[in-house]
Write a structure and sequence with these properties.
Layout lengths: L5 H79 L4 E5 L4 E4 L1 H7 L14 H4 L4 H13 L2 E11 L3 E12 L4 E8 L1 H43 L8 H31 L12
Antiparallel strand pairs: 1-2, 1-5, 3-4, 4-5
Helix pairs in contact: 5-6
Length: 279
C-alpha cells in the first residue's frame, strides 16, 4: 500500500541517505585511523632508530673526545720528555717548516722560539741553517730511506762558531713529519784530532828511535867489542874495566830501544803478547 504521507517518505529517504553517508564516513575514518596507526608505528620505529643513532653518535663523540684527550696527554708527555733531553731536537713538517723544537735546540744555537716555529728550516738564524749537507740529508737521503743515523755535518755558525754535529733523522710518512736529533761532537772531534796528532808524534819518535839510535848504537857496540878484544891494540886492565861498563850500558840501552819497538808492534797488533803465571 503506497505511503499516504509524502513528507514522511521524503524524510525517510533523507535519513537513509544520511545513514549511508555516515557509514561511508565511518569507513573513511577507519581507513584514516589505520593509516594513522601505521604512521605512528613508523614514527615510533624511526624514533627508536633515531635514539639508537643518537646514542651511537654520543658514544662516538665520547670516544673521540677520549682519543683526543689521550693524544693531547701523549703529546704533552712527549714534549716534556723532549724538554728534558740534553741534545737539540727539532720537528719539521713535510714542507721542511719547523713545527716545534726543544729547549736544548734554542739554547745551543741561540735562536728564539718566536723566530723558529712555522719558519722554513733553511731560513733560521738569518739563513745560518742553509747548509749544503743538511739539504742533502733532507732533500735527497730521506726521500730514499725513512731514517738516517750519525750523519756528520760541519758548519761555521755566526753566533756559536764552528760546530761538528751528528744528525739522526726519522721521516714519519703517515704523520707527515721529520724528526731530527742533533749531537754536538765538536769537542770530541778536537780530542780525536789531538789523539791522532799524539799518535803521529809517537810514531815519528819510534821511527827515530829505530833508525837514529839503534843503528849508531850497533856500530858503537861493535867498535867497543873490537877494542876490547885487542884487535885495535893492547888494552890494560883499567881500560878493560871502562870498556866493560860501556858494553853493559850499551846493552841496557839496546834492550830499552827494543822494548819501545815491541810496544809499538803490540799496539799495531803485529806482535802477540803471551801471558803466563810466574812464581
Amino acid at each position: 500500500m503506497p505511503d499516504s504521507d509524502p513528507g514522511r517518505s521524503a524524510a525517510t529517504r533523507q535519513l537513509q541517505e544520511a545513514n549511508s553517508a555516515l557509514a561511508e564516513a565511518k569507513e573513511k575514518i577507519q581507513t584514516l585511523n589505520e593509516v594513522l596507526n601505521t604512521a605512528n608505528e613508523e614514527l615510533r620505529s624511526r624514533n627508536a632508530d633515531t635514539l639508537l643513532v643518537n646514542a651511537s653518535l654520543a658514544e662516538d663523540i665520547i670516544e673521540r673526545r677520549k682519543a683526543q684527550q689521550i693524544m693531547k696527554d701523549g703529546r704533552a708527555y712527549a714534549e716534556n720528555i723532549l724538554e728534558t733531553m740534553s741534545e737539540p731536537f727539532i720537528v719539521l713538517d713535510d714542507t721542511l717548516r719547523v713545527i716545534s723544537a726543544n729547549r736544548a735546540f734554542y739554547q745551543t744555537f741561540k735562536i728564539k722560539l718566536e723566530d723558529t716555529q712555522g719558519e722554513f728550516i733553511y731560513e733560521l738564524g738569518n739563513r745560518q741553517w742553509n747548509i749544503p749537507k743538511l739539504r742533502q740529508l733532507l732533500e735527497d737521503i730521506l726521500l730514499k730511506v725513512p731514517a738516517f743515523d750519525n750523519y756528520e755535518v760541519e758548519h761555521n755558525f755566526q753566533m756559536i762558531g764552528l760546530k761538528t754535529m751528528l744528525l739522526n733523522a726519522r721521516r714519519l710518512v703517515a704523520m707527515r713529519m721529520i724528526l731530527i736529533t742533533i749531537r754536538d761532537v765538536t769537542e770530541r772531534k778536537k780530542a780525536e784530532e789531538k789523539i791522532t796528532e799524539a799518535a803521529r808524534i809517537k810514531s815519528n819518535f819510534t821511527s827515530m828511535v829505530s833508525h837514529e839510535l839503534r843503528t849508531p848504537l850497533t856500530v858503537i857496540k861493535e867498535s867497543i867489542s873490537i877494542i876490547r878484544d885487542g884487535t885495535a891494540g893492547v888494552v890494560n886492565a883499567e881500560q878493560l874495566e871502562f870498556l866493560d861498563t860501556a858494553q853493559r850500558n850499551i846493552d841496557r840501552l839496546a834492550r830499552l830501544i827494543n822494548d819501545v819497538l815491541d810496544f809499538q808492534k803490540l799496539e799495531a797488533k803485529q806482535l802477540e803478547l803471551s801471558v803466563s803465571p810466574t812464581d
